[in-house]
Amino acid sequence: MSIVANFATADIKLFLWIFSKNGKLFVWIFSIFGNLFVWIILILYFYILKQRNLYMYCKRLIDKYLSEWASRDVHKPLLLRGARQVGKSTAVQELSKKFETFVEINFEKQPKYKALFKDDLDVKRIVPQISAMYGTSIKPGKTLLFLDEIQDCPQAIMALRFFKEDMPELHVIAAGSLLEFALNELPTFGVGRIHSMFMYPMTFDEFLEANGQHLLIESRNQASIDNPLPEPLHDKLVEMLRTYMLVGGMPESVKTWVEYHDYVKCQEVQDDIIVTYEDDFPKYKKTVDPILLRQTLRSAAVQVTKKFVYSKVGQEYKTAEVKKAIQLLTLAGILHPVTHTDANGLPFGSEEDKSYQKMLLLDTGLLLRLLNMSLGDISELTTQILTASAADMANKGPMAELVVGLEMLHHMSPNIRHDLYYWVRNAKNSQAEIDYISSYLQIVVPIEVKADTQGGMKSLWSFMRDKKLHYAIRCSMENFGKFTYVDKNDNAEVRNVRICPMYAIAQMEEVKQGIEK
Fold first, then answer.
1. Cα angle, residue 454 at apex, residues 452 and 456 outer, rounded to 5°
2. What is the helix (H) or strand (E) element at residue 236, kind and residue range?
3. Would strands 335-341 and 481-487 be described as parallel, antiparallel, or unpaired?
C-alpha cells in the first residue's frame, strides 16, 4: 500500500510541476474541450427539439368527439370516414394514449389478418386470435382495437356490428381511405349498430394551433360584431389566412410548413397527395375509366365554385359518364357538391335541384396544385393571394368562396354527413346568386362572400326581398361588424347584415345569435 501511495504522490507532484511550467497551455486545452462539450449539448438539445416538433401531434376538432365516444359506458363500434391522408389514423393513434393497450391492424400492410374473418364473423373467436397473433392482450374497457384500411377486408366491415352485440365493452375503431366504395358494395354493414364520424382536412383554427397561435385564436374568439378586433390582430389573422390558403389543410403539408416555412416544399407534398389520389382511381370501379376520373377532377378544379358544366370535362364523354365520375369523387371525399335550393324553408333538401351544382375541392392547397397542372403557371393567382388587398382577394377568383364553404362544412358536427346549398336565379335579365344558404333556429340565413359594404350586393337584396328575410351574413376579409340597408324597393324594409370575417367561420353560429324573423 505504501508503494502505491508513493507512486500516486509522485504522479501528483509531476502533474503540478508540468502545470506550473505550462499553465497557459493547460488552460487553453481545458477551454477548447469545455466549449466543445457545450456545443455538443446545444446540438443534442436542438436535435431533440426538432424531432419533437417533427412528430408533434396537431390538435384536431375531432379529438373532442373521439374522446367523448371513448368515455361512454355504452358505445358502438366507430367507423372513421374521410378522404385519404386527412389524418384519420393519426387521430386514432393519439386517442390510444387514453387506453392501457393499443392494437392496430392495417389490412393493407398486414393482409395475414384477413384470414381470421373468413370462416365466420364470431368476434369472440376473432379477438383472441388477433391478440395471439399481435402478441398483446385485448381487454374490453382497457384496449383500443384499431382496424385500419378495412376496405381491404369486407368481411371485417361486416363483423363490426357483432362487436356491439357480443363485445359491447370493447372499443373498436375502423377506418379506410377508400371505405365508401367498400360500403356501397355491401348489402348491409350494421345500420344502427355502428357509429360513423366524418373527418376532413385541417381547419384554419387547427392550422393556427399547429403554428403555435393559440393566443391569437383566443383573442379572435373574444371579438364580436359589436366588439371588433384591434387592427393589428385583424391584420395578423388576414396574413395567416393568406398562408393557410396556399398551404392548405392536409396534415402533411401543414407539418411541412411548420417545420420549414417553405411554400415550395409544401407544393411537393401536395403534388404527391394528388398523385396518390389519381393512383387510387383504378380501384374505384372497373366500369369507370381512370382517365375520365382524372379529367373530371381537373375540370372540377377549373370550374370550382361555378355551376359545374359536364361538357367541359371533354366532348368525348357523355353526361351520364361524367355524373358517375362526380359521384365517385364525392364518395372518395375529394369533391363536395353545393346544390341549388329554392330556400323557401327547411329542410333545404326538399327543394334542391341537382341540375344546378357547384363543386368544392376538399382543400385549397390541392386546388392550387391542380390548377397549376391544368392551366400551367398560376403565379399570378398565388401572388394575388399573398399580396392583393383584402377587398380584391374576396372579390376575385374562387379561393374566398371555397375557403368559406369548406370552413362551414368542417365546423359542422362530424357525427353525420352534411350537405351544402346555394341559391341561383337564371331568369332572363334577372340573374342572381347567393353563395351559400344556411339556417339559424329554423330561419333561412343567406351568406354572401363579398368585400364591399353595399355595392355589388344586388343579388342579396333581391333574395331577401323575395323570401321576406331581414338578416344575412357577409363573409369577407373585413373585421367583425354589422350594417343595415334600407330597401327602397320594398317599402323601406330594413335589411340587417352581419359581417363574419373569413378567418372566423368557426364563430359563425355566434355571429348568427340574435337573428329573428
1. 70
2. helix 231-247
3. unpaired
Largest interatomic CA distance in the chain: 117
Contacts 24+ apart (CB under 8 A), 399-402: 399/245, 399/364, 399/367, 400/449, 400/475, 400/476, 400/477, 400/502, 401/305, 401/435, 401/449, 402/304, 402/305, 402/360, 402/361, 402/364, 402/367
Confidence label for 179 from pLDDT (cuts 50, 70 and 90): confident
The pTM assigned to this predicted structure is: 0.87
User: Residue 389's pLDDT is what?
Assistant: 66
Sign of the Cα pseudo-torsion (194, 195, 201, 207, in order) = negative
Cα separation, 475 vs 432, in Å, equals 18
Domain regions of the chain by residue span? 2-54, 62-198, 207-512
Q: Which residue has the cell 386514432?
A: 92
Cell numbers representing residue 492 in the block: 323601406
Amino acid at 335: L
* Separation of alpha carbons 396 and 394, rounded Å: 6
Residues in the chain: 517
* Cβ contact 229:219 at 8 Å: yes
- DSSP string for 401-443: HHHHHHHHHHTS-TTS---EEEEEEEETTEEEEESEEEEETTE
Confidence of residue 12 (pLDDT cuts 50, 70, 90): low
Q: Identify which of 473, 480, 418 has the alpha carbon closest to the alpha carbon of residue 444.
A: 473
| CATH number assigned to the domain with residue range 62-198, chosen from the 4 options 3.30.160.70, 3.40.50.12780, 3.40.50.1820, 3.40.50.300 | 3.40.50.300
- Residue 52's pLDDT is what? 46
| Angle of the 290-302 helix axis to the 364-375 helix axis, nearest 10 | 100
Q: What is the C-alpha to C-alpha distance for residues 147 and 113, in angstroms, rounded to an integer?
A: 10
Q: In the prediction, which pLDDT does 41 show?
A: 74
Q: Extract the C-alpha cell encoding 328.
A: 365517385
Asked whether the beta carbons of 85 and 252 are under 8 A apart, the reply is: yes
Instruction: Encode pLDDT of 217-229 as tens digits.
Output: 999 999 999 999 9
Pairwise CA distance, residues 126 & 103, whole Å: 13
Could you tell me the sign of the dihedral formed by the alpha carbons of 244, 247, 252, 254, in that order?
negative
